[in-house]
Design goal:
By secondary structure, this protein is mainly α. The chain is built from ten helices and two strands. It is an enzyme of class 2 (transferase).
Amino acid sequence: FFTLQVLCRYQHVWTIDLRLRPAFLSGIMQAAGNKPPAMLPKRAEYLLKDVRRMAKYYQVPLQISADSFQHILGKSTLGAMRFLTAVDMTQPQHLEPLSREFWIRFWSQHEDTSQPENILSVARQAGLSSELAQKLLEMISSSAVKNRLKETTDEAIKYGAFGMPAVVAHFNGEPHLFFGSDRLELLGSIIGEKWLGPVPT
């Protein structure tokens, strides 16, 4: 959520062509043999404090409690990622506001974004018509959307992703992988752009 928000802010400050690429986190974690950090009790305790500090620093409306990690671990994002994939394939201009709205619902309002009615609600809030949202929802069970999401997930794995957020910067003919929202300053350094804090003016 932090990385999404800040990169969207910087797309108008840095000379970059920002492309959001929906990928399936569980597929990436499984391929890398990774486990959610909150599964380790001491790390979960630390993360709770750290995420709250980061929300304040990045000025992102995130509400999190000790129960939030269980909610997150217990909910699938596959339907949401397939919906975003369908959007990316057919209506890419809506990808950014939809991504932001999904994250707000998931992290701040703790909604189950795997449910069709919640997906449609997210779409309406992001400005899509009911007709378009319903059409996109029907696409998520299609082989074309499923294959596209798998391809994007496999591509992230190929670049070395082992979790999210994963940012791949293509610079001077070479891909550079960055993991975590706290690597954006380093990203700027690599591509020759100045970090102006989490809310650049």
